[in-house]
Amino acid sequence: MKTTTKTKLSIVLNAIILLTTIGVVISYFFGNDGKYHIEPLFRFNLFTTDSNLLCAAAAAFMIPFEIRLLKKGTPVPRWVFLVKYVGTCAVTLTFFTVVCFLGPMMGFMDMVFGGTSIYMHFFGPILGFVSFCFLETSQPISLPTSLIGLIPMLVYGGVYCYMVVILTAERGGWIDFYQFNQGGYWYISFAVIMAAMFGFCSVIRLVHNRIAARSQKTP
């Protein structure tokens, strides 16, 4: 696929990611509370919302620079590219957490296919993965650089542990809504999730770099 074609497709997918994510988040304040009746502001405590917003922000950064690339041939800045990588890693974790953990535990029809959750849990992550791995392939990612993909989970995990384990719901913190502290084994959950996150970062890097290598042969 030609570079100009890939860039145009990337702009389209990034626009879909940005506009759809904004639309879904806005809908939370207009009655879209889902089966579990989640308050709008509480949605921002969820990694699902945060990861999709991060990916949407990355898409928003990418669009103007990709337009400039088409018009002037100026490469997308490295930092913009890396923000999109981090956002892609974050929504990939959301996807697999829902499919492998929350879906079986709470029900796929509610967690995956219920209302706008189908976008936040499924289509949003897929669009992020496809756009980054197959279309935004001008810059390879080194193994050391790939570790920045761990940042969203490190930050969120730290906040979650503080609010659930240290502060606790009784003192104004959060209930353990992800059930990661069952039996007090939050550290096991954290280690497993971080290991999984590293695996996702590595897979995304490998797929992206393989497509990037092929792209170098196509003008």
Please summarize what this structure is.
By secondary structure, this protein is mostly helical.
Q: Uncertain regions: pLDDT < 50 for 5+ in a row?
A: none
Assign a percent range to the helix content.
over 70%
Rg from alpha-carbon coordinates: 18 Å
H and E string: HHHHHHHH
Classification by helices and strands = mainly alpha
Separation, N- and C-terminal Cα atoms: 9 Å
DSSP strand tally? 0
Count, helices: 8
Mean pLDDT: 92
Major pleated sheet = none
How would you sum up the global shape?
A: globular
* Residue fraction in strands: under 5%
Please characterize this protein's 3D structure.
The protein has 219 residues and is mainly alpha-helical. It has helices spanning 3-27, 47-72, 78-106, 108-111, 117-135, 143-146, 151-167, 186-215. The longest helix is centred in the last third of the chain and has 30 residues, at 186-215. The radius of gyration is 18 Å and the shape is globular. It starts with a helix and ends with a helix. The model has no long low-confidence stretch (mean pLDDT 92).
Fold topology:
Layout: H1 3-27, H2 47-72, H3 78-106, H4 108-111, H5 117-135, H6 143-146, H7 151-167, H8 186-215
What features would you highlight for this structure?
mainly alpha
